[in-house]
Amino acid sequence: QVQLVESGGGLVQPGGSLKLSCTASGSIFAGAAMAWYRQAGNQREFVAIITRGGSTGYATSVKGRFTISRDNAKNTVYLQMNSLKFEDTAVYYCNKNPANWDRDYWGQGTRVTVSS
Q: Mind listing the pLDDT tens digit for each residue in 98-116?
C-alpha cells in the first residue's frame, strides 16, 4: 500500500522552529531519494532533498535554516526548520524525488503557519 504521512506542522512565530516528520511506505522510500516540497496558494516548490546515502540539497530560500535527514530503518524523513520566516508559511509534503504533482501519489501534507 502506497502511503505518505506527514506530521509536525503548526503555528509558530517568526524566528521559531519546527520539526516535520514523514513516514513513507516501503514502495516509495526504498532506494529513493526523498524530498520535502511545499505549496503556498497555487505556488509549489521544492524545499530539500536527501539521497539514500545521506547527501543533501536545499532550495536557496531555506539553505542554512532547514536541515533534512532520514532514518532508513524507520522509512522516515525529517525536516528541521529553524529561523522560520513569514514566507515559509505553506503546506509541506514529502515524496520521492523526482515526483510529479499531478501524476504521483501525495499524502495530506502538514500545514506550517508562521505568524506573529
A: 999 999 999 999 999 999 9
